[in-house]
Description:
Elements: H1 14-29, H2 42-47, H3 50-74
Amino acid sequence: MKEIPGVIMKPKTNASRLVNIKKALNTLAKQPGVNPHMLYIEDKILAGDGETIRQLLLNIKNAYRFISKCIMKTT
């Protein structure tokens, strides 16, 4: 949970929405365990493709579980 710099608050155009989506996906790309194939789906997210969004959320959930398990093993 952190703020993503450069995010446009209350975007009014699809171009600014796409910028926000790309920034969020770039932030996710830096996290271990996130499927890299899920990071290039900006257009589907912008279009509101439910299946793609659910797959992305599931991938994020699994990545955070992976990170949590790694942290638990080191402590």
